[in-house]
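User: Here's a structure from my thesis project, written as structure tokens. My advisor, Dr. K., wants to see whether a designed sequence matches the one we expressed. Can you design one independently, without my sequence as a hint?
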């Protein structure tokens, strides 16, 4: 008999860590802009665009883009902005990792504070959560078959592997011109822009990943008619792009996290020579993980009627996909301005960011709880400060179906973002906020399997063979199979079924009496 072997590759989860990174600095008002009277709001975006493993460390780099809106210390109390970019450069310690392994990382801003130092300088302090996961491929040589041994004396089964095909960070460029509608004034200066990605559609094709969706451009600008007047508008910009992924095939599972890495906004003239267009040049960063479900047949056990088989096994853990789904939760709440906030004349814009405080994995579901942080910029009924920014927090709780998941031995990846958010004035002090949160949920778990790695044949142990009864009436117990009984009593499943008039193995039930005859060759 000939022992046949093959190599299989198993993805091992080496480690998963989250660390906090502090980015702080000062933003100085440019010489061309007036002094600061009051800071209205600060907005920031953080991203990682480079990561590598060295000396048991994950080294990551990226940028934090920050924009400050402020009311100027001048007679008309006009709004101005100043912006800056700060580098992110830090590391995560993780024992046992090396450069041949694969690292997957992303970051989120969990807190952003600012302080007005003087009328020309604002200091800021941003706290980032950086999450990383390291995977390694292990190649194992296993026994796949024994040529010359009857199939009914080998027990084989399929295992379903969630196999990592590729991880990659890439980006593609979106260039577009948008034009403001006729009812709005011309543009003098762009004060704030927020670009977010909505309506994402991601498909795996042969050797590439196709990505499409919309960039929602939220733009606040200053009019060329009166610098005190600020105008806000939103417009969705469709985009599509392809990223080369060697080995990708239709039906594979994509995990793709998109964000705007960097952007450039430019005021352009329309056909009439008026400043009514904005040129947008944005890079979409794509954090990509492609995996596939693969069924692999393995040899589980074997025996012969005239020889002893010594089987060497290696116990290995392997990843299995439990479920992947998308879910959306609605938020709706009436809020009242704080007592020290001036009354509202008109809402200019609203923005929101979702934070996950807790995600509890239970039987067939996940309970996600957190908050949505809302900022509402409005024209105030106040002569001293005609603009104001009101901040509020809305709690949410969402149950997400995750069929097959359990609280034990399961690994949860849950990502969320705001699909849309809006506000309606009820009174000059009361607002109704509506929005929707997208949840992207992935649950995996590790299973353990004993892989047959070595087989040795020995002469039959005559004493052991003689100790087996020549004939026995056996009562089936819970967990028994005819194959197990055939191995124990040195016979075959075919002989047992023929002797007992059994058509299918599934016909045998607990408590059935089975006649077994030992077979000697």
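Assistant: Designed independently from the structure alone:
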């Amino acid at each position: 008999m000939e022992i046949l072997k093959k190599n299989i590759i198993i993805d091992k989860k080496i480690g998963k860590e989250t660390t906090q990174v502090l980015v702080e600095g000062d933003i100085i008002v440019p010489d061309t802009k007036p002094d600061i009277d009051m800071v209205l709001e600060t907005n920031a975006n953080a991203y990682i665009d480079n990561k590598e493993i060295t000396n048991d460390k994950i080294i990551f780099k990226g940028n934090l883009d920050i924009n400050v809106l402020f009311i100027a210390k001048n007679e008309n109390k006009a709004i101005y902005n100043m912006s800056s970019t700060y580098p992110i450069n830090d590391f995560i310690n993780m024992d046992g990792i090396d450069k041949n392994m694969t690292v997957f990382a992303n970051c989120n801003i969990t807190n952003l504070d600012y302080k007005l130092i003087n009328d020309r300088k604002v200091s800021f302090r941003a706290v980032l959560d950086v999450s990383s996961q390291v995977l390694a491929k292990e190649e194992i040589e296993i026994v796949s078959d024994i040529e010359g041994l009857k199939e009914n004396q080998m027990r084989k089964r399929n295992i379903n592997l969630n196999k990592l095909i590729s991880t990659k960070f890439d980006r593609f460029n979106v260039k577009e011109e948008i034009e403001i509608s006729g009812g709005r004034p011309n543009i003098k200066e762009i004060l704030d822009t927020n670009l977010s990605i909505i309506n994402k559609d991601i498909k795996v094709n042969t050797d590439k990943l196709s990505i499409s969706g919309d960039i929602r451009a939220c733009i606040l600008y200053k009019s060329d008619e009166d610098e005190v007047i600020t105008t806000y508008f939103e417009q969705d910009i469709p985009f599509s792009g392809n990223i080369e992924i060697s080995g990708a095939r239709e039906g594979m599972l994509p995990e793709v996290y998109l964000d705007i890495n960097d952007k450039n906004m430019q005021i352009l003239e329309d056909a009439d020579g008026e400043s009514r267009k904005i040129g947008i040049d944005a890079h979409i960063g794509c954090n990509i993980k492609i995996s596939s479900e693969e069924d692999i047949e393995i040899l589980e056990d074997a025996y012969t009627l005239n020889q002893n088989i010594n089987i060497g096994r290696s116990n290995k853990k392997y990843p299995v996909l439990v479920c992947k789904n998308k879910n959306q939760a609605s938020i709706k709440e009436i809020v009242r301005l704080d007592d020290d906030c001036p009354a509202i004349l008109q809402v200019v814009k609203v923005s929101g960011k979702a934070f996950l405080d807790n995600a509890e994995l239970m039987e067939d579901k996940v309970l996600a709880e957190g908050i949505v942080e809302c900022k509402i910029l409005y024209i105030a009924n106040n002569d001293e400060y005609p603009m104001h920014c009101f901040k509020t927090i809305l709690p949410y709780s969402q149950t997400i179906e995750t069929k097959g998941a359990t609280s034990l031995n399961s690994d949860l990846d849950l990502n969320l973002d705001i699909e849309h958010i809006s506000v309606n004035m009820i009174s000059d002090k009361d607002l109704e906020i509506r929005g929707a949160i997208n949840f992207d949920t992935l649950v995996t778990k590790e299973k353990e399997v004993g892989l047959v790695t070595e087989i040795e044949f020995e002469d039959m142990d005559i004493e052991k063979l003689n100790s087996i009864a020549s004939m026995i009436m056996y009562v089936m117990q819970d967990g028994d199979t005819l194959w197990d009984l055939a191995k124990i009593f040195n016979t075959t499943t075919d002989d047992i079924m023929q002797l007992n008039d059994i058509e299918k193995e599934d016909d045998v039930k607990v408590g059935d009496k089975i006649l077994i005859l030992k077979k000697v060759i």
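When you compare it with your expressed construct, this may help: The first strand starts at residue 2 and ends at 28.
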